[in-house]
Design a protein that fits this description.
Elements (H helix, E strand, L loop, with lengths): L9 H23 L13 H15 L10 E10 L4 E5 L2 E2 L6 E3 L6 E10 L7 H11 L4 E6 L5 H8 L10 E6 L16 E5 L9 E6 L2 E15 L3 E10 L4 E2 L5 E2 L2 H20 L4 E8 L7 H8 L8 E7 L8 E5 L5 H14 L5 E4 L7 H6 L4 E7 L20 H14 L2
Bound molecules: zinc ion.
Zinc ion binds next to loops.
């Protein structure tokens, strides 16, 4: 990539300017993950502040807007945790996001409670659970359920705890799997904690809990949209969601460096590239909000597009670009297989990535609402050793950006030669 470098020097500086791509991306990822954006979710308007940051970048790059602003607003209902978030077991304070996470659909809860253990040995059937619980008068207790035991009755029972079947104060679910957070667009009738069993050595006798929850029924968020004009009416769209999960209480936020500050940064990088290398097609960049709450921003966009979706020649959605050590996976690769074969051929010819793998359709990122409207589209994500996903360790310090430049080159070559 020869950006930022005067023409005469390019022959000598190819290596250096290649490195510039990922260092620019890293700089943008650092910014998007900064505490002032609060994890780009729905607490303290983190996502809106991040949107303003991206708008500012679009402006400074001289990108065009559809209409008089770069943004497109929409509303969603969302459950949030903007205030206190503290949990103690046996009077010992737990670390939020490490020892436990709040189930994102939870209600607020404040107080000190005794526990009631639902042990596999005590539960032979659903009826038995209800019978025993009613005898024990669990209304003022927190129910502890050990989900590590692979007991079918408990598994079935756990599925329905959003409804607070035992009419208890709350539930603690003991897990041996990694804690993985998400966003909820509803509030349950109870409070649920997912607790990592690792490091939990004693029986939990008491739970002190102080959790502020707030249901926001009409949260206003916004997508950011910009473009660089080409020489034909056809459009190529690059998209990436910039939102993430926000705050789990006022002290803890989920930065989302890989998911998806990395893809958002690559879009900014691509905008620089096409500013310097005028594209054949109108080249549109969309940073979606509300992805983590269920593709809300992209669903809104396809219903209210600022241009005809028929003009889209191809959409490339980038999400999770942190580590392409093994390569990339292409969702819709088995559907738009001619385009996929061209992508693969370019990769082999240029010797860029170890693996370019095809997958079928999946409603797992913002390409999907477009795909449902008949827009040819790929969702590209990287695969490597990076394992932090929807947790407090998905931070800029941890992301390697392995083969970032190779992915960048593959994508730009595909648009240039493969469409
Ligand atoms: Zn995500």
């Amino acid at each position: 990539m020869l950006r930022f470098v005067p023409f005469l020097f390019t022959l000598f500086l190819v290596g250096i300017s290649n490195a510039q791509n990922s260092s620019y991306a890293k700089e943008m990822i650092d910014s998007l993950c900064a505490p002032r954006y609060h994890g780009r979710g729905y607490v303290f308007q983190g996502d809106l502040k991040a949107a303003s940051f991206i708008e500012k970048q679009c402006k400074s790059k001289g990108l065009n807007s559809f209409g008089d602003s770069y943004t497109q607003s929409f509303k969603l209902g969302v459950n949030t945790f903007p205030g206190d978030m503290s949990v103690k077991f046996n009077r010992k304070l737990l670390q939020t996001g490490v020892d436990y996470q709040i189930n994102p659909g939870s209600q607020n809860l404040n107080g000190s409670f005794k526990t009631y253990y639902l042990k596999p040995s005590m539960v032979k059937s659903q009826e038995k659970i209800f019978k025993t619980a009613s005898k024990k008068k669990v209304q003022n207790r927190v129910i502890v359920i050990d989900e590590t035991s692979e007991n079918a009755v408990i598994e079935e029972f756990s599925k329905g705890i959003n409804q607070n079947p035992l009419n208890a104060k709350g539930y603690v679910l003991l897990k041996d799997k990694k804690l993985t957070w998400w966003a909820s667009r509803r509030t349950y009738n109870t409070t649920i904690l997912d607790v990592s069993i690792e490091g939990l050595h004693k029986k939990i006798k008491t739970v002190d809990i102080n959790i502020d929850q707030e249901w926001v029924s009409e949260y206003q968020s916004k997508n950011v949209v910009a473009f660089i004009p080409g020489q034909s009416d056809s459009m190529v769209i690059f998209s990436a969601h910039f939102d993430h999960l926000g705050r789990m209480g006022k002290e803890t936020y989920i930065a989302g460096a890989s998911d998806n500050a990395s893809g958002s940064a690559m879009l900014l990088d691509l905008a620089d590239y096409y500013s310097e290398n005028p594209p054949k097609y109108n080249t549109v960049f969309i940073w979606f909000a509300g992805e983590e709450a269920g593709l809300v921003g992209s669903k809104y966009f396809v219903e209210n597009p600022p241009f005809s979706l028929d003009n889209i020649k191809f959409l490339l959605n980038l999400d999770l670009m942190a580590d392409a050590k093994k390569g990339i996976t292409v969702v819709n690769g088995t559907i738009f297989n001619e385009a996929f074969d061209r992508l693969k051929a370019i990769n082999e010819r240029e010797g860029l990535l170890n693996q370019v793998k095809a997958r079928g359709a999946a409603a797992n990122s913002d390409h999907y609402p477009f795909y449902e409207k008949g827009v040819p589209s790929f969702f590209i994500y990287t695969e490597g050793d990076y394992k932090h996903y929807h947790d407090i360790n998905d931070v800029p310090e941890n992301i390697p950006l392995t083969n970032y430049d190779q992915v960048f080159e593959l994508i730009t070559s595909f648009v240039k030669e493969g469409l």
